[in-house]
Amino acid sequence: MNILVIAIIFLATAENMAPLILGYLKTPPNAVFLGTVHHPLDYFYYLSQFAQGSYRWITTVNLFTSESLPPTFVGWSNVLLGRIFSVFGIPPIIAYHTSVAILMALLLVCAYKLAVAITNSRLKATVSLYLFTLFHAFSVTREGNPSYGDYFNNFAVPRVRFGAVPHQLLTAAISMLIVHSAIAWTRSRNRKYLILLAVGSVALASLQPVLWAMISIAVLISGQWQLGVVGVSGLVPALYLSRLFSVFPFSQLRAWEAAQQTALTMEHFISATGPVFLLALFSFPGTMRNKSFGMRFAIVFSTISFLLFLSPIPKLLDISHVRFLSTLTILLVSVIAASGLTKLVTSAQRPAKIIGWAMLLILSLYLLPNHSKTIRLSSAFKPENAYEYLSTDDYRFFTDIRATLTPRDLTLVPWPYNEMFPALTGMRSFHGHPLLTIKAEEKSRDAGDFFSHALSDAQNVSFLAGHGISYIIGPAYDGALKEKTWLKPVVSSRELILYQVQKQP
User: Fold this and answer.
1) Are 230 and 261 in a shared domain?
2) What is the pLDDT of residues 397-438, one digit of tens each?
């Protein structure tokens, strides 16, 4: 890799980590930044998997519901990373964001290597990588303020395409490694690439089965039926996830996602996808003349992605349409766009060369401000938001009680701490993330009744025993809890107290 490629990777990784850095810089005195750089409840869920790395390897347990559920392989990469970091004594929050930085750099290296494999040109691959990191929606004005075209989970926006979710970055990197291995196999027929394809397909199907299925289909349409190993290898993990997400609590996640279908007009779609996409459309006829498997796959996969995304098929399958777009899609569109742009830049005719460089400069000047807007929106942290900042005393309380609790214990925690408790301790909460808690509304009501002292002592004891709750976290100011003879204070801070529920005679 040349110095320009290294610079692009460094700057793009720095941009991706910018909200985290700004979050730390905004930390008020006597507070701790929790690293919440995307949707808080999802972040705490993923972080709870990292936290489980202190006592698990590749299986996870849903810590946000009172039911005793069997371990699953959902989030296996997060718990494995958590395990690796825990060996070196690195806590979950630091492990999580260190993983983001490492996997982001790895993803960009994979993107460059794949672009080289497709184009057989380091210049085209460098331009592809640049457009891939530059890729952004068009600028728009929203409610009188400068913004950009967008919709739910828009991969044209860097915070979705890259973002701060380790398993999503890993998923994108694996998808690129699979395509790279497929291209390498067509050129060498070396069996080692078939092994890499099989292993990569198992991993990808266990993380994002829709993306695995689309790659499998695109490989076959591109004329390489011998690479059916991609489809065959991923069948077992894909079927496993399909069955798992048909039962509680994961079926709640599936139902919620299936409802996320954004109705897009063509104007909305174009504004939210951006100018690099339009450049790819203009470059499309020229790339059609390239008969290599790599470019043929790029054309087939990106075409399938957008056609399915814009079709009614996702809704019929009860799958969110955004599942049919991916970071890989944006990379392949960038490769197609770069192929057309570099043809102008390297043209022997001076006017064409000037036009090519001018287009690259205009794209950069136009899109870079949108990246700045993305960073600003992603770092609008508020010191009073408990999802983002905890007092040093409260944070120390949660780290201290890890030594008291065990993975078998169930703790009743008041809002909003219940939603971050599993992430900070790696232990089970009576309720938390509404899509991961079975009967979430009922449990939220029951917890509210308990902490508001709406129940009699007999009802409280029955409620705790009925759910197998062994510990309670209560506010230090709550004198009524302190008076309960069946609660024993174990660990306390200025604001919170951990009580152990005593067995009744």
Assistant:
1) yes
2) 999 999 999 999 999 999 999 999 999 999 999 999 999 999
